[in-house]
Records
---
Amino acid sequence: MPVSGVVVSCVQDRAEHVAALISAMDGVEVHGTLPDGQIVAVVEADTVHDEVAIVSRLHDVDGVVTVRMAYHNFEDEA
Amino acid sequence: MELSRRDFLKASAAAAAFAAAGAPLLRPTDAEAAEAGIKWGKAPCRFCGTGCGVLVGVKDGRIVATKGDPAAPVNKGLNCIKGYFLSKVLYGKDRLTKPLIRKGDKMVEASWDEAMTLIASKFKESIAKHGPDSVAIYGSGQWTVFEGYAASKLFKGGIGTNNVEPNARLCMASAVTGFMTTFASDEPMGCYDDLDLGDTYFLWGANMAECHPILFSRMIDNRLKNPKVKIIDFGTRRTRTSQMADQYVKFVPQTDLALLNAIAHVIVKENLYDEGFIKKHVVFKKGKENIGYGLEDNFKFADDPKPITFDEYKKFLEPYTPEYASKLSGVPAAKIVELARLYADKGRKVNSLWTMGFNQHVRGTWVNNLVYNVHLLTGKISRPGENPMSLTGQPSACGTAREVGTFTHRLPADMVVTNPDHRAKTEKIWGIPAGTIPAKPTYNTVEMFRALDRGDIKVLWSQVTNPFQSMPNLNRYRKGARKGDGRFVIVSDIYPTKSTEVADVILPSASWVEKEGMFGNAERRTQQWFKLVDAPGEAKSDLWQTMELARRLGYGSLFPYKYVEKEMFEEYRKFGEGQGKDMAPYEVYTKARGLRWPVVNGKETLWRYAEGYDPYVKQGEGIKFYKNKKDDGRAVIWARPYEPAAEAPDKSYPFWLCTGRVLEHWHTGTMTGRVPELKRAYPAAVCEMHPDDARKLGIKHLQKVKISSRRGTIILPVDLNGRGKAEKGNVFVAFFDETKLINELCIDAYCPISGEPDFKKCAVKVEKA
């Protein structure tokens, strides 16, 4: 199962709201919200396909500005 | 056991994300244990021209993990969504692993020796019968520095033909001629640091949020910290970038020429220009007008620059009133005045950013000139945080196509084949007899494929790109390739593509970290990587392939290296030494996360032409455009008029068609299309259309429509509520989808100065399918 660490940046003052929304999504674990409005989350899924589908959905959450990936491990799938 | 290892991996992922977000946590030692056995190496990303640093994790000979490289200044530890597929693009099920030779309608496996023997015999036969200009090589900004250099050296310095062109001609050529005509030196003066340091950003038709997400994020991060930051998106289509901008200013295609002249008009009329800067650093010129569109085969154009005075330039601007520009563009006159004042605001650090909207333009050189005019009038250039910045779409459009000079007219370090001193210098460094390099450029890319269609070019080798999907007016060139009569097409690639379909020989290539390489990004940063994994099957690097042809044609002595990459680079960097294009020794790049040239005494240059940053600018000079020697170290403000597009909507074809990219796919989709997850995210091309236009035609969301131009027809579903939103009278289709070849509809009109075609403007009609 692939795992990735992502940084979600949000419209100012929306980070807490976005964090609550995305932590309810399957496969997303919010690990923290930084004072500057960035959210650190871990995404995991059965396949990279599903993982990317989750990241695409993160992009579309209202208040999300960008989703960037810091770390991606997929050795079980390789 | 499995569960705990998984928890460690998750901790590792979170720790990397925290560190990249600027909140370093202690890295859990458990996470390190989970990563045991993974060996990490650095590389620039394989996809766009941003040049993000990636750490590639290899275990048992396969890539199993990637990270944004925390030490990379470009992306500071974060990658965009395409980072998920960096390694997977190497592992698609249909990777080419053996050379294939056409036998009738079938492609049959062959040995490298058979394939190279056949290729060499075709080259020899064609050269003997029809001369060296009957053979050609076509590459791209995805060539590593070495691959482009080897191609240029073999063709220009060995075979003796200037038939060398890159996909960059379809992509960056207008940026090159813009830089050359204004500053006499290619590539930007500024760098990505301007995205952090500026406060005002004008985007001209650049959908950075989707096409350069990491650079867009840097600008957005800047805005989150600094409420003064303003982003203005000039566009012909509402995009994800427009949503994030402070202002979206829509305009009619092609009228950017009028808008920029109107902005200059207001700046001049209201005395908002920087007179001291202009006196010291600027000359004025005008060139030819009504310059044509390159639609006829063998079209030729030579500009005839004439000096003019500032007063004459002011006179030229007079007709470009905000009202006149408003009438053409649809932008309210008051808005033009407001934005001109914003450009000139002395309390603001202003940047302009653009990509294909300006470059893929029948007046691409002019519109590049015009944006420089505004920065030169206001003196907002070559200063930290305020610069015009041309972005690039391919990972080494700058490093290879432009700096190595893999165009028909170019040689390394901005030199050109038409200049006898440049040829002599090149022949000396290459150790070849004087007079080997022909003095005349042959064909730009469009003309090269026209020549293949006509049969003037017989043998064409395409490497690392996909011209038989990406050319405009595609039908003509796809048919031309298969006309027979001695035509022979070789395609080197990692997957089957629309180009391998028309090939006589297909060669399997090594990709990215399957070979040692170097790329140069859009901010002049040269980056190196080592080979980290083996290529599959018998695939070999394009560098090896080119040198192997050289050996078989008797030009093996052009490549006398033992450690090929290192020795080739040391030879190559002689071209830039002392020319303001200096690079460091190869070893330095093996450790650094890239360096921005000129690199003098081990120090990179952030802002060119600026005292204190650029070692070529002497103390007391402040700013010096020292590369433009013929104008005494000054830059040129050009009087360039508005002229219409090659083809505009009319009664029969009432819509503008614009093509472009989407976030999930890169270029023609041959790599990203291999990844099922990306295919799923954005599976097929759609036709973006304005709901009002659709209503008039009785077309519903996702209904299939037939889009036709005078050159071709395709059927696509309409998207009325997609990520991108077409303006009224416009439709947009992405070009990645090989089952829907939108480029068959595009016109092969090009900018007469740059030779770059206009993929953003032609006329189409839309009907229910």
Note: Chain B has a mean pLDDT of 94.
---
Amino acid sequence: MPFFLGVCLAFPSFAEKQPAQKPSPAVQDFLKRVERYADLRNSLEKKLQEPGDKAEPEEIRAHQLALAELIRGARSEAKEGDVLCPEAVKELKQVLKSEFQGAGGKTAKATVKESAPAPFECKVNQAYPANAPVSTVPPDVLLKLPQLPEDIEYRFVGSNLILRDVRANIVVDCAREITSLS
Amino acid sequence: MLKPRMGSLLLSLLLSGILAPEWSTSALATQSTGGPKVDVTLPQKSGSVRFMVVGDTGTGGSAQRKLAETMVAAYGKFPFEFVLMVGDNLYGSERPKDYQEKFEEPYKPLLDAGVKFYAALGNHDEPQQRHYERFNMKGERYYSFKIKDVKFFALDSTYMSPEQLKWIEEELKGSNEDWKICFFHHPIYSSGGRHGSDVELRKVLEPLFVQYGVDAVFAGHEHFYERLKPQKQIYYFTSGAGGKLRKGDLTRGSPLTAAGFDQGQSFMLIEITGDEMHFQTLTTSGATVDKGTAVRREKLRSQQNLATEAAPPSKGPADSTSRSDKTKSSNGSTAGSE
């Protein structure tokens, strides 16, 4: 689903305020890529027993590690920019620039900066570090960014934006220097 | 050996109930001999909803464990049914042994007694905690549940997506319970020096809370206790010193603070009965640093409508703090020391 349409359907008050817009070809391309990743993750997950809602810690941990290994195996050739492709990153950069500008943008930027974990080297397929908290992504920013499939989320790590798969706890992709938090 | 006169005095005090023996209240109280002495002042009315609120617990360290002993002693005096965990349930790694050391072991007596824990996710928590049976999250990052006439809404404040906003709006709109209580990690009002109010989150959540009649909000993230002056008639509490502590971080003289404590770990006991929510905040030593009673918003409104009908028109809108501070409290010294 085009991200803007998705946003409008999910959040009617936003839809009322904003004219409908077709996402650019670059964003559509990005959304196709991230959907492909989600499809792969979901199909690999079917090979594993789902933890459900009454799991023990051993099951949760085993499921997460096994899923991460399956994804790494299936994406062994994956490299930075495969999902967050350069053309889309340019547009996301503009979205963030606009969201972090002005008086309103100052608090959004401060929220991200204040919550950001100590920078760590982001690599595709690596585990999100256990001792690193996650940055807050302000709700207004999430409203403007293309909507991601379930359990894939945007997070800031320093000035980088990563896509994190929370089921496998791995970095799907990373866009470097996408925003300046200084 | 007691002198005969002193012995008869003790006996008469025991019989009159002034010196109630601690072992009479519950089996758990007998296990806490030598532990902290806790004096619970909540009304303990029949049929009330009783729970505990605590956040930022999951260190597995001695401070968390000592506070847990006080919780167990408090349970002996005030058997609460469940606990709201306001996030940062497990710091650092989340291996099976971390679940044990940072959650199951410290709270074992409560878990064994059948107390249910309902968790919200913090910025140190992996969302996969939603699958853990003892966090009762139903496999969801945000969820709701109902206890008698109180509806609770757990939110994931680290990622307030459009879908989640739509969900909370629909949930609140569809809720007909007397009380609506939200709990999540990041406080939208706070006097913390390190973090402070999450203004971005407030922009999207507060209008929904006001529109759909949320009565009280519990948060963590700030490693201290703070009771905020009611904002737009909503009560806000931060209870984020369940394991971690940021000593001295509560801004002195903050216009937001109604009461606070940042000198030690703490947790809250809550009892809801009818239109009143009674609260008491305890420290590791069992000292009470805040207590009081909050009145349900609908009740407040009807009282205000009655007052408006009886009184001449006012000059204009008062500020949100002074208009709605109907909390009756005591022991609420701001940022006091234990």
Note: Chain B has one domain: 48-330.
